[in-house]
Amino acid sequence: MMQMRTSDIFKLAFKALRDRKLRSFLTILGIMIGSAIILALIASSSGLSAGIQAQVSKIGANTLTVSSARQFFAPGGSSGTQNYQLSQQDVNRIKSLQGVSDVIPYYSQRATISYGSNSMEGELIGVDTSALFTMYKGLSLYSGSLPDSYDPSAAAVGYSIAFPTGSSDQLTLNQMISITLGGSTSSLTFLVKGVFSEYGRVLFSNIDDTVFVSLQSAQILLKTQYFSGLYVITNTAGDVTTVQQEIESYYGTQVRVMSAGSMVSSVESITSQMTVFLGSIGGVSLFVAAVGITNTMFVSVMERTREIGILKALGYRPRQIMGMFLSEAILSGVVGGVGGTILGYALSFMIGGALPMSGGFGPPGQTRSSTTLTPVFTPELIAFSLLFPIGIAVLAGLYPAWRASRMNAVVALKYE
User: Rounded to whole angstroms, how far apart are CA atoms 158 and 390?
Assistant: First the structure.
């Protein structure tokens, strides 16, 4: 009876794979692709969920946004191409609803911000500036102070506007900035009274790229008394559903009402569907790779029939023969799993970059800046990415290895 060390078994398996370079490469490549797709999709989906949850936490679970719906009749209008226009009357009406703590109207518009040698795309938001800290949880000033709500010439800017990347020309307090609305040639200048600390995104609107001015300033700049939307803050998170239903019941399809929770649910639903669809592609890749392993090992068994007969004649037990062939499958799974994890790590950032999150608080259809997602990798996910391909490879190679171990030594020695 021959004894064989585990290290010797894997050395022979590596030699066998090296002798069939092309077949082994294609088999391992299939494992890598399947493993990489699954890892990248799960990490990207987790990153999307984490990003949305972080954004929602900045406005609180007791906040609703109300904006005009597209292509519906305006009050007294006869054309279906007009939008319902939100006014102070709507602010007063919604504020009177039971469960509503406050209603904060705002204007929102894409704009070009210029000062010194810098010119950048950003967002202009006109709002009661005293309500900013109520609207955005955790927002703080880096320097200066909030502009007075009744000062039409003052503004507060986001961190990225004051300190643009790659530019040595930085904004200082009491410096003038020029605001030009998208599609317009006219501009207004504002005196910077405050700069906010880095804050990030809130429901797809980047506060760091935003200029905040008073409602009166926005009315002058936009030449309208109708608001882009309303922030509705309820007494508690439990009042959100009731208030939302009351607003929708009164306005019907004339306005769009969104809650933080419903937005998270919608995004996660879409993400889950995308993950299942694309994840199935990764599953198919792993299935094809498993078929490839099975086919490769069957061919290997046929090619090495005489070798199996000689080993049996020398006293190798069936389990040793089986271990030799099964080690080839395990080695393929290990190389494919490690390679797939590395490839999936890189691919997840590419997927995150291909999923721009756009939208915001302005009217539907208004263009917004985009951001990329940061994938989330957990120890459990990494372990799954490494071990799952090995399990698939072992299952695929189990039957061919068993067939090899059951060969009759005399028949195998006679095989040509």
Answer: 49
369 in the same domain as 295: yes
Q: Quote the crossing angle between the two packed helices 379-405 and 318-353, to the nearest 10°.
A: 150
* CA dihedral of 102, 129, 152, 88, whole degrees rounded to 10: -10
Q: How many domains are there within the chain?
A: 2
Share of the chain above pLDDT 70, in %: 84
Q: Do residues 192 and 157 lie in contact, with contact meaning Cβ atoms separated by under 8 Å? A: yes
pLDDT for 360 equals 40
Predicted confidence (pLDDT) per residue in 237-267, tens digit: 889 889 999 999 998 888 888 887 776 676 6
Q: What is the mean pLDDT of residues 270-279?
A: 70
Which single residue is written with the structure tokens 């009744």?
A: 150
Query: Between 21-59 and 260-303, two packed helices, what is the crossing angle to 10 degrees?
Result: 170
Rounded Cα gap, residues 369 and 110, in angstroms: 9
Looking up tokens 């919604």 gives 94
CA 146 to chain centre: 33
> What residue has token string 């959100």?
240
Give yes or no: residues 144 and 268 share one domain: no
Instruction: Check pLDDT > 70 for residue 414.
Output: no
Residue in the structure block whose two tokens are 């700069």? 195
The DSSP annotation for 69-99 comes to: PSS-PPTT---TTPPP-B-HHHHHHHHTSTT
Residues 295 and 348 in one domain: yes
Q: Is the pLDDT of residue 371 over 70?
A: no
Euclidean distance between CA atoms 37 and 385, whole angstroms:
10
Residues 410 and 270 in one domain: yes
Give the tokens for residue 6.
Answer: 């585990």
State the residue range of the domain holding 183.
Answer: 101-227
On whether both 183 and 322 belong to a single domain, the answer is no
Tell me which residue of 138, 140, 137, 146 sits closest to 63, measured CA to CA.
137
Residue 126 lies in a domain: yes
Q: If you write DSSP's letter for every residue of 210-261 in order, what string do you get?
A: EEEE-HHHHHHHHT-SSBSEEEEEESSGGGHHHHHHHHHHHHGGGEEEEEHH
Give the type of residue at 302.
M
Would 312 be classed as within a structural domain? yes
Residue 415's pLDDT is 61
Which residue has tokens 């993400």? 271
Tokens coding 213: 């001015």
pLDDT, mean of residues 139-147: 92
Same domain? 269 vs 139: no
